[in-house]
Amino acid sequence: MYDIKELYEAESLQEAVALRLEHPGARVIAGGSDVLVQMREGRLAGQELISIQRLDELRGVRLDDEGSIRLGSLTSFSQITKSPVIRKHIGVLGEAVDLVGGPQIRNLGTIGGNTCNGVTSADSASTLHAWEAVVELTGPAGERRLPIRDFYLGAGTVDIRPGEIQTAILIPRASYDRTWGYYYKYALRNAMDIATTGCSVNARLSPDGKTFERVRLAYGVAGPVPRRAPSAEAAANGRPVDRATVEAFGLAVLDDIDPRDSWRASRDFRRHIAVEMAKRCLAESVRRCGGELS
C-alpha cells in the first residue's frame, strides 16, 4: 500500500537534523496524516522518510519564561484544543484546529505538520497569522526564529533550510494579552472538509470598551498563502466600537485579498463571503472581549 524507499527514525533532535543533512530528499513525518495519504495515492511513491515521532520534547503547550505560548511542533490538534493554557489565553486556536478533519485526524495530526505543508487552507494558518505567531526552527547552525508571515513563501512552500526541523510555534504575550478572537470556516460540508475560505479575527478593546485598541485579521484561501488584511485592520484600529466601524472593516478587506477561482468556489463568491465573515468575526470578538457594539 505504501511505496516507501527507506524509513529513518530519529531518537533525538540532533539525530533528526543529521538525518536531514544526510538525506536531503527525504520527507519529515510525524503524524503522517498528509504524507502517508500522498504516498498511498502514488504522488510520493519511492520516498525516503525521516520520522520524528519519538521526539517527545517537541510535544506539549506551555508558557515560556517570556510569557509566550509555546506550542511544540509535534503537539496534536486534540492536545491543543484540550490544553488549559490555550483555553485560558487563546481559545480561538483550539476552536480552529478542532475543525480539522475528524477525531482520528485531530488525534494524529500535528500543528507542525499543518504549518509545514504550506497550504493556505490549513485551519490553523489564518489564526496563527492573526495572532502574529513566530516559527522556531532548529538546524545545523542552531536555532532560528521568524514571523509566520515570512515562513510561508508560496503555495505549498515554506522557509525550511537544509537540515532544519520545525521545533515550535510561539504566540508572543503582546499578541494575546487582553485579546479575544473568533475563527470562521466556510466549507461545503460541516465536517471533514477543507475550507473554502477561513477568516480569523482578534480584538483588544480600550479599558472602557469604547475603542478598538488593536484589531488583527487574517485569511486562508484568499491568496496563495495565508495573509493578513492590513487595510481592514487600519479601518478598525483606534476607531469606535460600533456597527459603522464593523461595516467599514468588512468592506476594507476587499483591498487586501486575492482569492482564486476553483471548483469549490469562484473568486467573486470568495470575495463576497470574505466581507461578511470579517464582520461576523469582529462582532463576535467584541462580545468575547466583554464589549458591546453601539
Model description:
This protein is of the alpha+beta class and 294 residues long. The chain folds into three domains: 4-51, 2-Layer Sandwich (Uridine Diphospho-n-acetylenolpyruvylglucosamine Reductase, domain 2); 56-174, Uridine Diphospho-n-acetylenolpyruvylglucosamine Reductase, domain 3 (2-Layer Sandwich); 180-288, CO dehydrogenase flavoprotein, C-terminal domain (Enolase-like, domain 1). 34% of the residues lie in helices and 24% in strands. It has 13 helices and 14 strands. It has helices at 13-22, 35-40, 77-82, 84-89, 91-97, 103-108, 111-116, 125-130, 148-151, 173-176, 230-236, 243-252, 267-288; strands spanning 4-9, 27-29, 47-51, 61-63, 69-72, 134-139, 142-147, 152-154, 157-158, 165-171, 180-186, 197-205, 212-220, 227-228. The protein has a five-stranded antiparallel beta sheet with strand order 4-5-10-6-7. Strands 11-12-13-14 form a four-stranded antiparallel beta sheet. Helix 2 (35-40) links the parallel strand 2 (27-29) and strand 3. Helix 11 (230-236) packs antiparallel against helix 12 and helix 12 runs antiparallel to helix 13 (267-288). The mean pLDDT is 92.
What's the quick description here?
The protein is built from 13 helices and 14 strands. The chain is an alpha+beta fold.
Strands, count:
14
- Helix fraction bin: 25-40%
Number of separate domains: 3
Count helical runs.
13
Mean pLDDT reading? 92
Inertia-based shape: globular
Order of helices and strands: EHEHEEEHHHHHHEEHEEEHEEEEHHH
Q: What fraction of residues sit in β-strands? A: 15-25%
